[in-house]
Every structure is written in C-alpha cells, then in structure tokens.
Design the sequence.
C-alpha cells in the first residue's frame, strides 16, 4: 500500500447527494478534498436551492473540506451555442459541459498535486450522459484517462491509477448503478449527512421554455453577452421582428432585473403611475416597434381596460410620451417566445 497520508483529490461538487457522498467516501479514506463548485449563467447559482448548484458551505464546514467556486463564464456560452457533442432534448450540452468542467478540474489537480479528479456520477443514472460509453468518452476527452474516479460506481468500472497504486482503497468504494437512490440515502445516514436536496436539474438549459428563448437569441444576435443570457430568465419575451425584441416585466423583481441587464441602446417604456411593468425594446427601435412595445406595456399595466394609455418612452438620448391602445392578447400570443 502506498502512503496516502498526504494524498488529495479534486471533486466536482454540486451540493447534491451524489457528489456529497463522493466527498465523504474520500474523507473516510483520509484523502484530502478540494471541492470545485461550478457556476454558469444558466441557473447554477448557490443562492437558489432549486438550482443545479447548492450552497456548499454548510456541509463543507460540517465535514471539513475546502470549497472553490469556479464560474465557466463567457466561454461556456460559446459551448452552449455550438457544442461539439450536441444538445440533449433542449439546449443542454451535457457532454461538452462535463468535459469543460473536468478540464478545469484537471488544471487544479495538476497545480495542487492531487492524485485524481472525483465526481458523483453513477453508471446508468442518466441515460444520455452516464452510460458506460459516455463516461469513457468524457474521461478521454477531458485528458483524465486513469485519473477520473467515480466512487459511487467505481467497482463497476475499470480501476483508476490511484486505486491500482493503493492510494485509494477500491474495496471501500461502491458499485451503484441506475436511477435509484436507496444506497446513497443509506450512505448519507451512515455518514451523518442529513440535509441534502431532492434531485432536480436546476439547469435552465433543460427547460423547454427557456431553451426556446435561447434559440431565438442565438438566431438573431451574433455576439451574445452574459447580460443577454441573464435577461432570458425574467419577464415576458416577444419577438416583434428579426431586428427587434420586446421584454415586459411581470413583477417588481423582474422590473429591477431588466433595468440591471439592459444594454446601453435599449429603449425603456413605462406607463407611469398606473402600476406599470418595465418594458425593454431591444434591437432596432423603429416607429412600429416602439408602438408595439408601448401597446404591450399598456396591456400589462393597471389601465389595461382603458381605450388608451400614456406610455413614457425613454431612448438612450431623449424621452417622449405617446398614447396607445393596449395590445390584444391574441396579437401578443402570436409573437410570444
């Protein structure tokens, strides 16, 4: 057996049950853990318990391991747009996403002298991304051949180098397969892990409504920025023309977010003193587009049953007030994203 008193691993950590169990299995073997939690612009946020990333700090403090937050940034937007291994049912590039995270983890492994990268993946748990062939593909493409350990299914997979060298005891690893969680829940009880979220995607790229908006954005905007992506999460979106999009807030939170994510050329509309939403006109601000955005604003303000509504239109360089009739629901439905 190789001396493992100073051995460490880098773990992909979502805060969910499987990755938490993977960490605790390493700690049980006295292996030091550095957990990487990846954040994206597509719903992986530690502030939201329904997200694909949970707040990592309570469990890290309880069991004593380090957590490092890593944001995939704008490069991941490019991956989502043109994934090498394609999208899933919606806009989720699961294989490319996993490879990108593992490549980042590989860099940390090499910089810190860790012996392996560890994940909470379970053989057969996800039929599109966790088949044996897909797991092998991800290992190869990430450059982690022999250094990628999946402790929950390890005894069903080829031994990794740290296992073969005795740094990690293969006999203490698991042989879990499929979508059931009974064994993981049993292990959680044994480890004293009593607070973990129910399984949920959390990733907006798996949501059909969000994916529809994202496809529209990629189709009409050559250079997509993070604020463009963040704006997709709030408001009602309408494609008025190939050059123009209208976004109408649904509540105060939406209104605040929309003002935060707007770009410098956006036109802002509001039917002031009427319980009005904030509306953004993005792209070409033709007269027709401005009127359409104003009518949408009027439709969702408190005066929506009036024959006409005064709407303030704030351009980047000037302000005007126009009077319009609220839009018909049928008209808005036809262009809603």
Sequence:
């Amino acid at each position: 057996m190789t001396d493992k008193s100073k051995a460490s691993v880098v773990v992909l950590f979502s805060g969910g049950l499987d990755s938490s169990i993977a960490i605790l299995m390493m700690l049980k073997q006295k292996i030091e853990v550095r957990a990487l939690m990846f954040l994206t612009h597509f719903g992986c946020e530690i502030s939201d318990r329904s997200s694909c990333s949970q707040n990592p700090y309570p469990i890290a403090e309880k069991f004593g391991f380090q957590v490092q937050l890593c944001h995939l940034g704008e490069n991941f937007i490019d991956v989502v747009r043109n994934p090498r291994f394609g999208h899933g049912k919606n806009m989720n590039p699961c294989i490319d996403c996993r490879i990108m995270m593992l490549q980042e983890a590989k860099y940390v492994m090499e910089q810190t002298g860790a012996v392996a990268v560890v994940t909470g993946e379970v053989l057969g748990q996800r039929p599109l991304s966790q088949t044996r062939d897909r797991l092998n593909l991800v290992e190869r493409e990430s450059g982690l051949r022999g250094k990628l350990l999946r402790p929950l299914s390890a005894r069903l997979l080829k031994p990794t180098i740290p296992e073969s060298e005795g740094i990690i005891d293969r006999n203490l690893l698991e042989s879990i397969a499929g979508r059931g969680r009974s064994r993981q829940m049993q292990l959680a009880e044994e480890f004293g892990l009593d607070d973990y979220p129910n399984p949920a995607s959390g990733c907006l790229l798996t949501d059909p409504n969000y994916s529809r908006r994202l496809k529209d954005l990629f189709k009409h905007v050559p250079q997509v920025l993070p604020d463009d992506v963040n704006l997709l999460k709030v408001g009602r979106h309408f494609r008025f023309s190939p050059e123009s999009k209208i976004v109408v807030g649904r509540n105060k939170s939406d209104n605040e977010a929309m003002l935060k994510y707007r770009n410098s050329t956006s036109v802002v509309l509001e039917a002031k003193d009427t319980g009005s939403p904030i509306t953004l006109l993005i792209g070409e601000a033709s007269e027709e587009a401005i009127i359409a955005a104003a009518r949408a604003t009027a439709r969702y303000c408190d005066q929506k049953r009036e024959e006409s509504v005064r709407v303030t239109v704030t351009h980047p360089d000037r302000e005007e007030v126009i009077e319009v009739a609220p839009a018909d629901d049928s008209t808005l439905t036809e262009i809603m994203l």
Summary: DSSP finds twelve helices and eleven strands in the chain. The chain has a mean pLDDT of 92. The longest strand covers residues 32-39.
